[in-house]
Amino acid sequence: MSEVIIKKITSRKELKAFIRFNYELYKGNAFAVPDFYEDTLDTFNPKKNAAFDFCDVDYFLAYRENKIVGRVAAIINKKANATWNVQDARFGWIDFIDDPEVSKALLQAVEQWARKHQMKRVIGPLGFTDMDPEGMLTDGYDQLSTMATIYNYPYYPKHMEMHGYEKEVDWVERKVRVPDSEHEARSGKYFRVAEISANRYNLHVRKFKSVKEVREGGYGYKIFDVVNKAYAPLYGFSEMNKRQIDQYVNVYLPLIDLRLVTVIETEDNQPVAIGIGMPSLSTALQKAHSRLFPFGWIHLAKALYLKHSDIVDLLLVAVLPEYQNKGVNAMLFADLIPIIQKMGFKFGETHPQLETNDKSQGQWAYLDAEIHKKRRCYQKTI
Is 86 strand, coil or helix? Predict the structure, then answer.
């Protein structure tokens, strides 16, 4: 068999091939959700992705007999390294055929790149920041993936261990059953906890009627300030700057159904917690073949505005540290769950949560929520 050739991407044409390789590798897979092509192009564009303000990156393709057989991105998040006092290079967007020579060549390319940049470890899969997909799937291969997470074949973790990579951290994801009736939705234990929390700490729920209302007064910055402070202790997190926040607000806010946005505020209207959901776009992206144009937008529009999936993705839950373990999460659920039930959703899909984050794990105690996926970040000292 011919040798594996690793090539660093130097052209837009090669970058497009890098993005499309994932779709080709998983084409026809019932559980994989393809990368959103146009969105991924923007992610890799320094003019559109604020993470390039503090990240270095190179992309590599693996070839055998002039055919692409793998891909990987090598990343240094300088802000995260400074925050955590580490010298780590990240690998992300890694995909490869079931051939150990291919995966070895890709990982060695990242390791060599990392040494060249005076890094001491390689960790991943991670993106530029926490807002990118992270963690290699290690359990739940028969579960539909989400737009915001990674799907990979079962052979991936085997290759990682084969090449000397070990566990760094694990995440879990839960499938949450939505109550069948409005009565059930409004009678859970979290409702009693929510009422106690609201009265004890003088908190209230805030809902928005328009995107304009969110934008006015810089409320988007207030929301992301909560996220920055809530996520600060979590693995690998680096504080989002103004340009990043503007990017997320401008791109994603118009897509959000404001019924699925709940903010908990103090008596002087300062946010202390945020919960955001969105109808699952997984099946729509599969139908669109990851492309917005020429016709992919039709499937996305249907999923968002006409006939949504029976799954709601729980994209973001964040509570200020000083309000954690005080029932504030229950206030979020007490507001969102009846709305979700009334909208006809049957299940909620949580975002990945660190298995060691006891506060985050404990918030599901009062709900019918089972772990149905697990994923891992690997590390190797170089």
Answer: coil
Say if strands 261-265 and 271-279 run parallel, antiparallel, or are unpaired: antiparallel
**Tokens in use for 258?**
């404001």
CB 100 within 8 A of CB 78: no
**pLDDT tens track for 234-256:** 999 999 999 999 998 888 888 89
Average pLDDT for residues 370-374, to the nearest whole number?
97
The single-letter DSSP state of residue 307 is S
Parse the chain into domains and list their residue ranges. 5-170, 176-374
Q: Tell which wins on pLDDT, 266 or 184.
A: 266
Among 88, 97, 94, 166, which residue's Cα sits nearest to residue 125? Answer: 94
- Averaging pLDDT over each range in 36-40, 91-95, 289-293, 306-310, which range is the top one? 91-95
Structure tokens given for 192: 């009693």
Reported CATH class of domain 176-374: alpha beta
How far apart are alpha carbons 21 and 63 in whole angstroms? 12
User: Half-sphere exposure of 252 toward its Cβ, with a 13 Å CA cutoff?
Assistant: 17
Look at residue 295 and tell me whether its pLDDT is greater than 80: no
Check residue 236 and report its DSSP letter: T
Q: Which two tokens stand for residue 276?
A: 């955001």
The reported pLDDT for the residue numbered 193 is 92
Does the fold of domain 176-374 match that of domain 5-170? yes
Please check whether residue 135 is in contact with residue 379, taking contact to mean a CB–CB distance below 8 angstroms.
Answer: no
Parallel, antiparallel, or unpaired: how do β-strands 353-354 and 347-350 relate? Answer: unpaired
Q: Which among 358, 366, 373 is positioned nearest to 331, based on CA atoms?
A: 366
Full 3-state SS string of 233-289: CCCCCCCCCHHHHHHHHHHHHHHCCHHHEEEEECCCCCEEEEEEEEECCHHHHHHHC
Residue with tokens 């692409």: 68
> What confidence score (pLDDT) does residue 35 get?
84
Q: Is the pLDDT of residue 286 over 90?
A: yes
Which among 145, 144, 181, 176 is positioned nearest to 344, based on CA atoms?
A: 181
Please give the CATH architecture assigned to the domain spanning 5-170: 3-Layer(aba) Sandwich (3.40)
